[in-house]
Amino acid sequence: QLNKLDSAISEQKLIEFIQKLNNDKAVSGIILQMPLPGHIDYRKISQSIAESKDIEGISPVNLGKIIFGQARFIPCTAAAVMELVKHTGIDLMGKSVVIVGHSEIVGKPLSLLFLDKLATVTVCHIGTSRVGKLSDYVALADILVVAVGKPGLIKGEWIKKDAVVIDVGINRVDNKVVGDVEFETAQKRASWITPVPGGVGPLTVTMLMRNLILAAKLQVGE
Prior knowledge:
The chain has 2 domains: 11-73 and 203-220, 3-Layer(aba) Sandwich (Rossmann fold); 76-201, Rossmann fold. Strands 2-1-3-4-7 form a 5-stranded parallel β-sheet. It is built from 9 helices and 7 strands. Helix 4 crosses helix 5 (107-116). The chain is α/β, with parallel strands linked by helices. Helix 5 links the parallel strand 1 (96-100) and strand 2 (120-124). The chain starts with 10 loop residues before the first helix and ends with a helix.
């Protein structure tokens, strides 16, 4: 069910609408379509979504549970990345994982998920770039995850030989969709690399559907 609301809706009215969905037994999951209008506080709205229906895993409760290894609903893109890495068969213990981007729904939760696997995690961000250290950290990565939204940010020659490269970025350049990694040069060095489009995106949708099924089962007591 798609609910289209007036872009001028107040925060309070939006919260009240979400509360109705929280209390509606016919609704198993709630998705908050981004971006929100500028006058709406994303964090305040995400807090209003019931934990049991937060199938995107964006509420503070679900994000907080990642710290304790108790999360039922993991942010979908982060879950997709972990699933992709799992299917490489690589043992993450002690591996150098470098995450470029520290958003609340990708970079930050991913750092905790990798730590839970006993990987050695480095999170890079705009500060890393400003001091000219990004390429140095990227070169250390056994597993590199990039989620920034800047086309060609990561140069292929920076990639460690045989690294696993997960490109989460989605950018439009000259009517083409490209990632944050220079794919053509990076694929010559990586042992595994995800394309854009067709890599992380489809699996993110799958993780969303998995969360929805789990939410529906939990709500009927299964």
